[in-house]
Structures are given as C-alpha cells and as structure tokens.
Amino acid sequence: FRKKTKTNVVAIPGILPNIDGVEVMFVAKDNTLIYTKIACDHLFTLDKDGDQKLDGRVVSIIYRGQSDNSVIEVFVAFSDEESYGLFSMQLGLQERLASISKSVFLQLGSHQNLFSKTDTYATQFVYTFKMYKKGSRFFMVNNQQTAAYLVDESKIQRGSADKIKSVFWGA
Questions:
Q1: What tens digit of pLDDT does each residue of 108-119 get?
Q2: Conformational region of residue 170, where left means phi above 0, alpha means psi within -120 to 50, and beta covers everything else
Q3: Which of 24, 41, 46 is nearest to 135 (CA)?
C-alpha cells in the first residue's frame, strides 16, 4: 500500500455555476471532498415512496494526473430529458462528455491547487448513477447496483451498493 499525503486543496467556496448545461454536484481530490452543491433541491422530485430522487442522471468525470498521480473526481448531473437521449439512445454521447469534460476542466482550472498547471490529465467517464437526497446526504448508485457513493457535508465514501445503501437508508 502507498501512504497518501493529505491534499493541500482548499474547499471551493460558494456555488459553482451551471457548466455547459450540467450541474456540478460534487468535487473531490484524492478522496477529499472539496465541493458539495448545497442549493440543489430544485433538481430533485419525490418518487412514489416519498424519497427525493434526482430528476436525471449523474456522471463521474475522473481526471488522473499523469506525473503526480492525483485523482480529481467531478460529479455532474444531467437533466432527465438529456439523460434519455445520451445514455439510453447513445445520441452524441462521447462528443457531449468530451465537451463537458473540457468545460469543467477550464472552469475549475482556476481554483487554487485543484489542477496542476504543469501536469497532463487522462480523463475517464463513469456513468450513469441514480442519485437520492436525504437531508444533507446524497446517495448515488449505478444501474447494475455494483458501485455506490455516499456524500455528506464533509466526506465522500465509496463501495458496494449494498453496504452504502444500508448506511444511507439506515437499514
């Protein structure tokens, strides 16, 4: 195992604007949560069980530093309408993800110590996730129920869907 050093990234203040038509929900660097979109109730609807469910889907954009091995994860939310065309019909999916990835990189690139000015980054997309909100906690799970995230005000957890699901729903 490699010992990880603590990241020197300062939390991103305020609310990030809509970037290229998607909402930036969370940003993490080297497993440290540095941004959570707090004012987001308008993105959720109540499902038949009365739970707050994102009206759309979430994609994780992962930027990996090629020389410093840093990992920056940006979780973006797509509207339900756009999600259907992109992820069900695969209409322009790769082009749209590439466009969003570039826009996010440029928008967040000015934030202190988030991206290195001298490193190059490999980009990976992990999609799609359903997202639920309960108070100030968020639960994301992929369609196959094999991967999940739990985000609260100060940290991000990842793991098997069953484990994370039971923590979120309190089972």
A1: 988 877 898 889
A2: left
A3: 41
Closest by CA position to 131, among listed 20, 15, 43: 43
- The full set of domain ranges for the chain reads 23-169
pLDDT tens readout for residues 62-104: 999 999 999 999 999 999 999 999 999 988 999 999 999 999 9
List of residues 6+ apart from 111 with CB closer than 8 A: 9, 12
Residue type, 149: Y
DSSP three-state, residue 24: strand
CA distance 141 to 28: 17
Structure tokens at 30: 């080297």
Beta strands in 37-136 (DSSP E): 44-46, 52-54, 56-65, 71-79, 121-134
Cα dist from 48 to 45, 51, 52, 53, whole Å: 10, 7, 10, 10
Q: How far apart are CA 14 and CA 33, in angstroms?
A: 14
CA distance 61 to 104: 9
